[in-house]
Structure formats: structure tokens, C-alpha cells
Design brief:
Helices cover 33% and strands 21% of the residues. The chain is an alpha/beta fold and 319 residues long. A 6-stranded mixed sheet has the order 2-3-1-4-5-6, sandwiched between helices. A 3-stranded mixed sheet has the order 7-8-9. The longest helix is centred in the C-terminal third of the chain and has 18 residues, at 266-283. It is globular, with a radius of gyration of 21 Å.
């Protein structure tokens, strides 16, 4: 008698919003899940300014993650748009992953900012609580108390302690998320990593280098735009294939131009070299970056300039 074949579980696919305060590790988590440095990371708050989709396809599911800006007390039009991106993405996704930083909880007490984020989340979506940076907590009792405090706020679909930096707990997190995804066909081809174009990530790589190399108010007033993107023609038979990209680094004050350029252009050269090395792996060819620096005063509080720099009104966009 032939053995009965086990019924294969249905394929699941859906969108997942990564939300939380700034600097809790959302982008680091996305990169850990994908095994790629897709989202830029720095120690500065509000590093992520836009929705960034990262797609992971397995045999059983397709996860379309949406990394979002950190929810914060906005002091500019840019900040408000970033908050709108985060809340709008959470409302549009199938599953919400709330990321919190357990190492930031003083005396095992939940921060008021985290309480506000929990209260702002849609009530009709499954929320998976991710307690990040457990590698920084020596006392297990503190971790247990924090988990209990969050658990009292809402009925979470799952609670998963992780260390995104060390990738501890990520596999379990994926299983918990998959259980909440709707059954259905994949939303994207299996080899697709993001819905953003390559040029978006090239601009982000340049901005990342500025963030890593500058301090105080300079990083918060920087935006990067692509002015020209020239791919090599497939008809040209040449041993040296080069993608030529022209970019502008916009700064909020004229005095910041000198900081970005540096003495004798050394800072700008270092920014360009580091970004180019990362960009070549992304583009798949040699890359030539032509970067200029321009003062665009008050761009972060001007609706027209925000639009020109690529920060569209998120309420008019869809996930």
C-alpha cells in the first residue's frame, strides 16, 4: 500500500512594515534578513527617510519588507513627511513588525516614545513585536520585565527577542511573520531584491558616506540627487565598461559646503571613493561618480524643494 503524500503548505506572500523609533535597528534588521546591505545604516537618527522595500523569497513564502523612517517628534516638513511615510506604510501592509531597543529601556521601563508608537498602530493588523539588541542586555531579568511591559500594552501576534547585528533570532522571526501572511501567489519575481531602482541606492550610498563622516547638524541637512545616469551602451565593444553618474549633495547651509568638500577636496574625494566601491557591486560595472556640492538653504522645510529633491508627499503614494 502506497504511503500517503503529505499535503504541502500553501504559499504565502504579503507586505510587512518595519516600524519603530529612530535608531532601534530597523534597517540593520532588514539587511540581516536579506543578507545584503540594502538599507544604509548610521548612528544618526532619521537615517532612513523613505520607504525602502526589501524582498525575500523562500520555497514557502515571499516577504515584501518595507523599512520605514523612525517615528519621532517632527520639527520640520521633512520630519512630518517621514512620519507620514511610516504611519501610511503600517496602515497599508499586511503585517506590522514593531522593533524596539531593549538596551534603551531604563530600569526595565518602557520608554514613553515606544508607548506612543504602540498606541498609534492600526488595531486591525497583526503586529509582531521584535525586541532588538538583546546582546547588550546582561541581566535576563530585565529582558523578561521589558517583554512583560510591552505585552500588557497590546495583544501581539508574536514576541521575538533578537540581535539584528548578530542575526540571532532572525530565522524564528521569519517563521512568525510567515504565519501571519495571507495565502497567495508571489507579488514579485523570485530573484527581485527591491522595487527601488539602482540609481536610488547609489544616491543613498553617497548620503551614507556623508552621514558616516560628518557630525552635529550637517548630516540632518543633507540630501543627494542624481543629475545624470549614463549606462554603457551594449553596442559598444570595449574592455572597460563604465557607468557614469553625476550627483549633487545638497546642504542646508552655505557654511556646510566646506565641511563636505574638505581641505583641498579631500573629504569629498573620500566620500566619492567609498561610495563608488559599494556602487560598483550594486551596478555590476565600473562606476565613475561626479559629485558636486550645492547649498539649498531650508530645503527640509520647503514643500517645493522637498518635491524637487525626491521627498514626495507620502499621502499621495501607495505601497
Amino acid at each position: 500500500m502506497a504511503a500517503k503524500k503529505s499535503k504541502k503548505a500553501p504559499f504565502r506572500a504579503g507586505t510587512i512594515a518595519l516600524v519603530g523609533r529612530p535608531n532601534v535597528g530597523k534597517s540593520t534588521l532588514l539587511n540581516a534578513i536579506l543578507g545584503e546591505r540594502l538599507a544604509i545604516v548610521s548612528h544618526h537618527p532619521q537615517t532612513t527617510r523613505d520607504r525602502i522595500a526589501g524582498i525575500l523569497t523562500t520555497d514557502d513564502a515571499q516577504f515584501v519588507f518595507q523599512d520605514t523612517p523612525g517615528l519621532h517628534a517632527a520639527k520640520s516638513r521633512l520630519g512630518k513627511r517621514m512620519n507620514d511615510v511610516a504611519t501610511g506604510t503600517a496602515e497599508a501592509c499586511d503585517v506590522i513588525v514593531l522593533v524596539v531597543d531593549v538596551s534603551a529601556a531604563a530600569n526595565a521601563e518602557v520608554r514613553p516614545e515606544d508607548t506612543k508608537v504602540v498606541a498609534s498602530l492600526p488595531k486591525d493588523r497583526p503586529v509582531v513585536l521584535v525586541v532588538n539588541k538583546i546582546d547588550r542586555v546582561a541581566e535576563k531579568a530585565k529582558l523578561i520585565e521589558v517583554l512583560a511591559s510591552f505585552g500588557a500594552m497590546r495583544d501581539f501576534a508574536a514576541v521575538v527577542p533578537i540581535s539584528a547585528k548578530k542575526r540571532d533570532g532572525v530565522d524564528r522571526l521569519l517563521k512568525e511573520i510567515a504565519a501571519q501572511l495571507p495565502e497567495g501567489a508571489a507579488l514579485y519575481p523570485p530573484d527581485e531584491l527591491s522595487d527601488k531602482p539602482v540609481r536610488f541606492f547609489v544616491a543613498e550610498l553617497v548620503r551614507e558616506q556623508v552621514l558616516l563622516r560628518t557630525r552635529e547638524e550637517v548630516p540632518h541637512g543633507v540630501a543627494v540627487t542624481i543629475d545624470a545616469y549614463e549606462e554603457p551602451s551594449p553596442k559598444r565593444k570595449t574592455a572597460k565598461v563604465v557607468t557614469k553618474i553625476k550627483l549633487t549633495v545638497h546642504v542646508a547651509k552655505d557654511s556646510h559646503k566646506g565641511i563636505i568638500i574638505g581641505q583641498g577636496g579631500q573629504m569629498l574625494a573620500a566620500i566619492g571613493t567609498a561610495a563608488r566601491r559599494r556602487a560598483e557591486g550594486l551596478v555590476g560595472s565600473q562606476v565613475h561618480l561626479d559629485i558636486k556640492v550645492k547649498a539649498t538653504p531650508g530645503w527640509f522645510d520647503d514643500d517645493a524643494r522637498l518635491l524637487d529633491l525626491g521627498y514626495a508627499d507620502p499621502k499621495r503614494a501607495s505601497v
